[in-house]
């Protein structure tokens, strides 16, 4: 059940005004968010049991952000009202046949007197209160302000705000010192933390990537081209916007409120093959889609790309919440370029789902053989002992071709489609957990990177033979990785790709690198060991 999918319009204008007044009262620091502490005091006036209130919070804060915005607050109040009327508080309650538009606000004991008292106070102190206007999130200017390092913990009102603060105070200094942004991933900006969850579609040309997005949106989007030839020749980000328009890559990469500034490292050749399609759509308010050019087969086509295709897909993979690899029954071969692309997704295996699209073009017996052939092809590329989850179906707006598949095929496709759609629906709910997961992953990678860089610096001589030593270190980089791993007891699977590291390292003077700074490493260790667990504890369900 996705709270944000319930429009505010299910609540009458008159009730909205009442809820707005209540929201402003409960939101003690007027930042537009009701945290667990605010909620426990406010919800206590409903006289519901602790168990019911625990359920109300869990359903209203379905994205697990640790706070309620105005939309979620209305949902919570509607749930409280239904609970007071004797309904059991369940996930499906707001989706049931209850007429929400005529539902009265709940009974909150003593609330009217408290609001009247607050109004009298405001009058006497002659402060003008603008009801529904909240100040911007306190974290909005941390990234640009010089005082960012000294942001107190009390100004953190959500998990994402807490991560921003920890990044600026503890992780970013380590990344800058050891040039993590040059070797692994660009530094994070405010927009990277606030970005909506992303889903990337990868596959060879004409496997139905663009059609899949159109199918989910139930209509086209600006700049969508579909055809049997390789039509999508660029990376297209499909996201929510006030009107339908296409924005060129160079423009989108320099917009501070967009999470794509890191793509400038791939140069103009890439940015001219990148665009953003904006349109108003309820689904796009929660998920952003990334449509990619068809992966080509054969060595000739690869050399004609003017930018680092695998590098770009790897950059997007780190930002995405789900990666869909699309195949169709007539294109099961995994080409050289596709193999490189799949290899670049290393470390993101948990995000990958495989979709066998256009499966209604063949009969049941052929489908069985095609499925076996697909698993055989994938087994040679994805080196994991576990079996990948494969969804079989025909993801387009046409009805299933029953003449080929028969009634069994139709039923199977419908079940598979439901499974995939429920996977997509879960993305916004898991977005906050995914963000923490990616943050911890990044912190570990930055720590290992610092160990490697400082170790290489330590191996350099003080005076003579620097160039020779540098060349020797680069040539024997794998052995040096082994030394670092043994010295600091690190897991070998967490180390970066040797060839890629060599390539980047050859452009630097190792002698100019920094020595190991134990205080910085300790700060990141403390962050992983204490700060992040504390943050999660502060913003969990207040009734746990």
UniProtKB/TrEMBL annotation:
Outline the extent of the EF-hand domain: 48-83
Q: GO BP, one example?
A: endosomal transport
What does the UniProt entry say about where the protein is found?
A: Cell membrane; Endosome membrane
Task: Give residue ranges for domain EH.
Answer: 15-104
The Dynamin-type G domain extends over: 193-428
Give the SUPFAM superfamilies listed for this entry: EF-hand (SSF47473), P-loop containing nucleoside triphosphate hydrolases (SSF52540)
One annotated Gene Ontology cellular component of this protein: plasma membrane
Q: Its topology with respect to the membrane?
A: Peripheral membrane protein
Sorted keywords for this record are: Calcium, Cell membrane, Endocytosis, Endosome, Membrane, Metal-binding, Nucleotide-binding
Q: One MF term in GO for this entry?
A: GTP binding
A family per Pfam: EH
The protein's name in its UniProt record = EH domain-containing protein 1-like
| Species for this entry | Quercus rubra
